[in-house]
């Protein structure tokens, strides 16, 4: 990481954030250390995620996030959300097919359209036209659902870019969860942290 994370003793909020992260993950993930100087921002980010996830199907949220992270070349977010899909039963080969956008990816036509659209939101939101929205509506998506897709993709830009701009390496724990080959495939940007 390009900046030094603060020590837990710096403030009660930092100590609590680190402790909660350790309780949840079994270790202190690098992303929490990156946000260590501003735990209130991580708190707000967590609240935003709860709000976003409350209005979108879990699988759809993960696919939108994966599409956004892929376009951002965010290793951390690719690994984190790839791990969620793997935990939900998506096999390693299926996950690779989703990442590659191949015809053999286990996606229906609506999911394919959503991922293409989420990629476009990240790449250049000003290029989106009414035709793009109308195309999503042909896949039985409502205006509110389209908003949710846009919001989830746009929110990922904040988090991924913050981690990458601070030089935050993805945690070695993802290699343990996903295996070295799949982890390497998902690490499209910054390399995975090496064990000391």
From TrEMBL:
InterPro entries: AhpD-like, CMD-like. Keywords: Oxidoreductase, Peroxidase. Residues 39-115 form the Carboxymuconolactone decarboxylase-like domain. This is Putative peroxidase-related enzyme. The keyword Oxidoreductase applies. It holds the Pfam family CMD. One of its GO terms (molecular function) is peroxiredoxin activity. The keyword Membrane does not apply.
